[in-house]
Amino acid sequence: MYAIKVTQEDVDLNNLQRNVNDILIYQELPKNWNGRNDFQNEKDPENYGFFQYIKPNFDKETQRLGAIHVNKRYINNVLELTEEELAERLKSKVPLTVKNMHFRIALINNGISIKSINDEIDLMPNSPQKEFIITMWNHAEHYERANTELNAMASQLGITDEQLDGLFLYTLNL
Fold first, then answer.
1. Alpha helices, DSSP H only, in 15-67?
2. Phi-psi group of 60: left, alpha or beta (phi > 0 → left; psi -120 to 50 → alpha; rest → beta)
3. Looking at residue 7, what DSSP letter applies?
4. DSSP run (H or E) holding 116
5. Cα–Cα distances in Å, from 140 out to 132, 143, 145, 148?
6. Measured between alpha carbons, how far is 76 from 57 in angstroms, rounded to an integer?
7. CA distance 166 to 160
8. Strand positions, DSSP E, the chain
9. What Å distances lie between residue 165 and 83, 87, 103, CA to CA?
10. Structural Rg of the chain based on CA atoms
11. What is the largest CA-CA distance in the chain?
């Protein structure tokens, strides 16, 4: 693989829709460059600013690629994700919906009994919202993570947003 740091001459001669100082990465040398139609056969591409690009191995779950450095080759720094980046990455994996049965199994396997939820619903004052929650709880095929009633019920049971995300994530393994 090769990379080049774009110059104004590169932009002008190659009609690049890129900014000066952008770094372009190529699997192989381009066929055409700076007016040459046989550039891929160039024996000394460094003369044109092309250097070998080495993409380091990294753990995509806990690391990210940082800036690219040049020293007769281009290589990225590997950076550890911050706590915020790790949390955001985990949040992005939370499914938007889960099956009712899977959600109930997740609750049970995480120490929350179905009876405790039914008891909490029973303690609610009679209202259209209670009827809605009973219907949703007993008959919904899927639960949506963004559902207002689900989030309110979780809060009433002392389940935090992070724990609710964890329950939704747990269902991915069922």
1. none
2. alpha
3. -
4. helix 114-123
5. 11, 7, 13, 14
6. 10
7. 10
8. 2-5, 23-26, 50-54, 63-70, 73-80, 97-99, 142-144
9. 17, 11, 11
10. 27
11. 81
Q: What is the distance between the alpha carbons of residues 71 and 26, in angstroms, rounded to a whole number?
A: 18
Residue type for position 11:
V
Q: Tokens standing for 132?
A: 């809605």
| Token couple for 79 | 């950076």
Q: Is the pTM of this model over 0.85?
A: no
Provide the β-strand partners of residue 159: none
Calpha distance 85→107 (Å, rounded): 27
Structure tokens at 87: 């949390």
DSSP 8-state assignment for residue 94: S
| Secondary structure (3-state) at 150 | helix
* Contacting residues for 140 by C-beta, under 8 A, at least 6 apart: 100
Q: Which residue has the tokens 């949703």?
A: 136
Q: Where are the beta strands (DSSP E) in 2-156?
A: 2-5, 23-26, 50-54, 63-70, 73-80, 97-99, 142-144
User: pLDDT 10s per residue in the chain (174 long)?
Assistant: 888 888 888 888 888 888 898 888 899 999 888 888 888 888 888 888 888 998 899 998 899 888 887 777 888 889 999 999 988 888 899 999 999 999 999 999 999 999 999 999 999 999 998 898 899 999 999 999 999 989 988 998 889 999 999 999 999 998
